[in-house]
Please model this.
Amino acid sequence: MPNRLLIATGNAGKVKEIRHELANADGWLSSLAVIGLKDLDAPPPECVEDRATFTGNAMKKARYYAAHADCLTLADDSGLCVSALNDAPGVYSARYAGVTGHGADEANNRKLLAAMNNVPDDQRQARFVCAMALALPDADIAVMLDEVHGVMLRAPRGANGFGYDPLFFFPEFNQTTAELDMATKSRISHRGKALRRMLAWMQEHPSLAETA
Model:
């Protein structure tokens, strides 16, 4: 059986993005069998994300799911920080509207648009932040943090992304994250940049292949 790398998420969009990057990796990374939580025979109860920072949540999730699957595990905690809202929704991005499962993204976007209704166009700056953690069941291994800056729109555009992607606008591309093709999004996104930094670090530590 190939060595496994568990991506600690049930979000198919995140798994797709990370698999896209790993498909182009060199060396021992190319031998990894990349799986998501939904690929496990018996996924554990969802990890409670109760830390105050993206880094704290990412590290907690990595260790939790690594212990369950007994393999090398990569977890991220990502979110949207809007300047005019004092960096909200922040670590609560995925549960901002209190909705889980189907319809959560739409509910979160509606709540965000309502909260920003009176924010002038020149004050709608925001950033996506990603903390990515690599762990084994008994050890934290590495953490990478990155971000990307943009502007929040007043209505969603595009169908390629998930979460707040339809509202997050890149002036230099004249597109939202949800309008970008996969290759461009991966190249410039917070998660793509954090992942490439993590993969570069992993590439320099081939001994990890023995633990995967």
Remarks:
- The mean pLDDT is 91.
- The first strand starts at residue 4 and ends at 7.
- Helices lie at 12-22, 54-69, 104-115, 182-188, 190-203.
- Residues 37 and 182 are 22 Å apart (CA to CA).
